[in-house]
């Protein structure tokens, strides 16, 4: 069977050429199955397609098209516990301690449903690839990485599932209750199983598996080192939380006599195959180490604001050449999973203390698209260009939220205005959002079912 050719005709495109975004007016995008084959002025493509009747054509004149955005940090299951009253005003350690008492009741079905809701939100915002840091496997629960993977496949999302881990429970001086942590041998066996069963190293992979202890201090030093060695042996990425709060820094100083980044460095946990969520509390030396080792940083501005964790020095990280991507973080510490809105927050947050030049629209767009793709080691994601995946997000230009701005500066419209839903989203060449609605599942049913599940879980 020959490949199906699609054309998004005569549209406006915003995408990064090298590191800087550019806007292409009156251009068309051709893709065959899941790969973009041509991006060129509309007249050129029309000429090329002259007389062909086998092309599925979409009139893009009322749309602006961007590469599907890449979310580099999430905990998809957390929509089960978002907005929870008892932690609405808590900082990280209190927030975690309280939430563990709820998360110990997770099951395959509840995690899958919560993940579907979180993924639905991401897709509707124009995000087409997400990392999911899934680290809680309560004892006697049937929760597995499959709980998240089934959710992603039911909605057509591209995913990096991060097989997380916790082995240091309360009785060993950790934060989680003992029934929420696992034996270290069990953890390593399941990491191997997840990679063998699901990791796809091919360029257009819909599923990859990364290895991801919850935090450097939630497993033993030996397991932290073993995880890094094993990931490198299997050529998969490493991910964890790091330097999120001042409490964490204090905890690491007391427990290891080192600040978090120094401890990670000692455990062979810095490098271009590592991406760290948050990195709010960094010394100048830490920043130099991250730049030198090409370690990635997943910036989660809303979560840092919601938990009062602090303001990471993103402009300085970018200046020093640290690789930065964007993340919404879990739904319990950022109660909305809208990646375009997250880019706007990233920009606004830096301006609070750094002034109006601290972060440009170009910086925010770059970290949300090609920056995130780079963090996840995906050279074929994050741009609208030949050879890249047909992951595309289309927003209507006749939306009142964008009107005025989009006519003069489409990039500014997307980064500065309050953008609602994407109108159409393609992942791997497949339409997963059409006319502002999911194509594969009924979103009202998802929301209804999650509300029911939450009611039962916390009765
Ligand atoms: Zn997180």
Explain this structure:
With about 450 residues, this protein is α/β, with parallel strands linked by helices. The chain folds into two domains: about 5-65 and about 385-445, Roll (Urease, subunit C, domain 1); about 70-375, TIM Barrel (Alpha-Beta Barrel), CATH 3.20.20.140. Helix content is about 40%, strand content about 20%. It has helices at about 40-50, 90-105, 110-125, 145-155, 185-200, 220-235, 245-255, 260-265, 285-295, 300-305, 315-320, 340-355, 360-375, 405-410, 410-415, 445-455; strands at about 5-15, 20-30, 35-40, 55-60, 65, 70, 125-135, 160-165, 205-215, 240, 275-280, 295-300, 325, 390-395, 425, 430-435, 435-440. The strands form three sheets. Strands 1, 2, 3, 4, 5, 14, 15, 16 and 17 form a nine-stranded mixed β-sheet that branches. Helix 4 links the parallel strand 7 and strand 8. The chain is globular and about 70 Å long. The relative contact order is 0.16. The mean pLDDT is about 95.
In total, the number of strands is 17
So what's the overall shape?
A: globular
Number of helical regions: 16
Percent of sequence in beta strands: 15-25%
Strand count, sense and barrel status of the largest sheet are: 9 strands, mixed
């Amino acid at each position: 069977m020959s490949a199906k050719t699609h054309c998004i005709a005569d549209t406006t495109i915003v995408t990064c050429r090298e590191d800087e975004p550019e806007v292409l007016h009156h251009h068309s995008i051709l893709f065959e199955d899941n790969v973009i084959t041509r991006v060129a002025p509309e007249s050129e493509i029309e000429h090329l397609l002259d007389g062909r009747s086998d092309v599925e054509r979409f009139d893009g004149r009322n749309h602006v098209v961007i590469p599907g955005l890449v979310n580099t940090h999430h905990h998809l299951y957390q929509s089960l516990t978002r907005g929870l009253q008892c932690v609405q005003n808590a900082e990280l350690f209190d927030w975690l301690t309280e939430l563990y008492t709820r998360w110990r009741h997770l099951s395959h079905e509840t995690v899958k449903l919560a993940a579907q809701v979180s993924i639905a939100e991401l897709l509707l915002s124009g995000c087409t690839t997400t990392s999911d840091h899934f680290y809680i496997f309560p004892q006697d629960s049937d929760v597995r990485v499959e709980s998240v993977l089934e959710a992603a496949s039911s909605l057509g999302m591209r995913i990096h599932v991060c097989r997380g881990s916790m082995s240091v429970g309360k009785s060993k001086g950790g934060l989680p209750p003992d029934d929420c942590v696992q034996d270290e041998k069990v953890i390593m066996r399941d990491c191997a199983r997840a990679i063998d069963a699901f990791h796809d190293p091919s360029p257009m992979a819909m599923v990859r598996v990364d290895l991801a202890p919850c935090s450097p201090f939630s497993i033993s030093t030996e397991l932290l080192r073993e995880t890094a060695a094993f990931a490198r042996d299997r050529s998969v990425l490493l991910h964890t939380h790091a330097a999120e709060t001042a409490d964490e820094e204090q905890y690491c100083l007391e427990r290891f006599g080192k600040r978090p980044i120094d401890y990670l460095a000692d455990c062979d946990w810095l490098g271009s195959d590592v991406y760290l969520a948050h990195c709010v509390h960094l010394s100048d030396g830490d920043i130099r180490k991250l730049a030198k080792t090409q370690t990635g940083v997943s910036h989660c501005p809303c979560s840092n604001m919601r938990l009062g964790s602090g303001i990471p020095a993103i402009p300085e990280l970018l200046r020093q050449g640290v690789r930065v991507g964007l993340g919404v973080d879990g739904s319990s510490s950022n109660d909305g999973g809208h990646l375009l809105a997250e880019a706007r927050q990233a920009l606004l947050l830096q301006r609070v203390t750094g002034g109006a030049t601290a972060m440009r629209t170009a910086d925010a767009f770059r970290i949300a698209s090609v920056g995130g793709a780079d963090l996840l080691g995906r050279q074929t994601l994050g741009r609208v260009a030949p050879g890249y995946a047909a992951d595309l997000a289309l927003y209507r230009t006749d939306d009142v939220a964008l009107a005025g701005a989009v006519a003069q500066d489409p990039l500014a419209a997307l980064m500065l205005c309050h953008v609602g839903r994407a109108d159409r989203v393609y992942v791997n060449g497949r339409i997963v959002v059409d006319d502002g609605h999911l194509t594969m599942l009924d979103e009202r049913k998802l929301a209804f079912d999650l509300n029911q599940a939450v009611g039962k879980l916390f009765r």
